Amino acid sequence: MSSLHLSGSLSPHIGNLTFLEDINIQNNNFQGTIPLEIDRLFCLQYLLFANNSFQGTIPTNLTHFPRILVIELKGNNLEGNIPPELGTLSNLYQLSLSRNHFSGSIPPSLGNLSALQILDLAHNNLHGTIPIELGHLSNLHVFQLSSKNLSGMVPDQLYSISTIQIFSIGGNLPNSIGNLSSTLTSVRLDQNYISGNIPQEITELVGLSYITIDTNMLTGSIPDSIGKLTNLQEFYLFTNNISGEIPYSIGNITGLTSLILEENMLEGSIPVSLGNCSNLQGLHLAQNRLTGGIPGEVIGLSSLYLGFIVRQNYLTGPLPSQAGKLENLVSLDISENKLSGEIPSALGNCLMLNSLHMDDNFFEGTIPSELKNLKAIQFMDFSRNNLSGNIPLFLGQLNLLVDLNLSFNNFEGEVPNGGVFKNITSFSVLGNRNLCGGVKELQLPACPTERVKKRSTRRVILVAIDIGVSIIFLVVCVCAVLYRLRKSKQPSVVSTEENQNPKLSYAELHQSTNGFSLDNLIGNGRYGSVYKGILNFGEQIVAVKVLNLQESGADKSFLAECEALRNLRQGHHLMLKLRF
């Protein structure tokens, strides 16, 4: 009858079922008290009431079950004291009372349960000391006990039980923990107000595959010999006051799958030896005091998929391109460090990435176009860096992206309007001064229209052409003047003002330019065209400019050019008269 979503109370008539050997109603929603009539079930061996809502106390007449093997009452609302009479159940091998509201002290009589293999009293309101008598439970495999109100030391006798495989307890960790069996596979000491150092002797428990000592008050460092635990798969030490460096020997634990050391005071660099942990799935080193760079050997572990979390440290240098090997990684958080360089385009290979946090660093350059491949991304934060360029349009095409932060960078240009950019609460572009457009709630200036852009470009081109033509015209004029100057220095029989400054008719100009032929065209400007002319049967080359008087400003341009020639004449002491 387990896990059937049953509710209501347990009828007292259950006492009439005297032949029952097994009652399994766990994982339902039964309420009320455990009926006293249950003491009639003399044949009962398994009492499985776990994970319901039973209230009241444990009936003391449970001791009437001479054949009982298992009592499972965890996960209810039971209260009161743990009955000392339970110590008379000589055949009992499992007693699970965790996650209730039991108070009082632990009965020393429980030490009489010589057949007991599992004792779980965790997460209650028990107080007092741990009875020395529990050290007599020589067959114990699982021992779980945690309460903030327990006092005193853990009896050394408990650490001498060689059969224990799962050990979870509060208090200090004595050196005698190393006396536990080498077959011990799990040490669970989380949330137990444990203080002091991690004893070096814990590394003698070479059979350990699981250590969780998180959320305590531990100090000191991680033992250098931690690498001896070659069977370790999961190591949780977060939220303590651990200092010192991460031991290099940790790289010897090649079967490690989870290493969670965040929220401590660890220093030094991330050991390169972690690159040997080829089965590592989650690496959390956030909120420490780590320095140095991110080793490519570590961030290149293709086995990582749960998370690579190193935020709030003092890491420097670039993000290695080996990050592109994290094809299955779900979360990458390198925020609040001192990392620099460009965002590696290889990140576009992290196709399963759901969360990318690179904020509060010194990254520069543009957002790589390869990030358009991150189709699974939901959270992306590039804020407080030195990134520049336009905001890529593809960010608005990532359909699952719901939170984007680009604030306090040097982005410029138009803010996209699609996807995540439609909802002002889903993205931020604060602190980028040269942005325009976007949704109206941004209150950014409008971007220049395409027509304005084309007109501006055309104006620039025309001005450039006009300047170019003017320069060509002046160069030709200078060449002509220099040519005349050179000719004037040669012996001449006749040197008259008429020969130096000939008057030319329109017909002569027309003939010299071959009828203003395109073959003679030197260039076009805003105010006219310049043609090459040949006078005196090829002896004299001139430039002829034909003004477009219909263009506004042509007359001013003509006068300016005349003034330039007049200044040129004075600069070379030429007696050249201009006739127009």
Automatic annotation (TrEMBL):
The superkingdom listed in its UniProt entry is Eukaryota
Q: Where are the transmembrane segments?
A: 460-483
InterPro entries referenced in this protein's UniProt entry, alphabetically: Kinase-like_dom_sf, Leu-rich_rpt, Leu-rich_rpt_typical-subtyp, LRR_dom_sf, Plant_receptor-like_S/T_kinase, Prot_kinase_dom, Protein_kinase_ATP_BS
Alphabetical keyword list: ATP-binding, Leucine-rich repeat, Membrane, Nucleotide-binding, Repeat, Transmembrane, Transmembrane helix
Q: Where is the Protein kinase domain?
A: 516-580
Any one biological process term the GO annotation gives: response to other organism
Q: Which molecular function terms from Gene Ontology are attached?
A: ATP binding; protein kinase activity
- Localisation: Membrane
Positions of ATP binding: K545
Protein topology in the membrane:
Single-pass membrane protein
Q: What is this protein called?
A: Protein kinase domain-containing protein
Q: What is the scientific name of the source organism?
A: Camellia sinensis var. sinensis
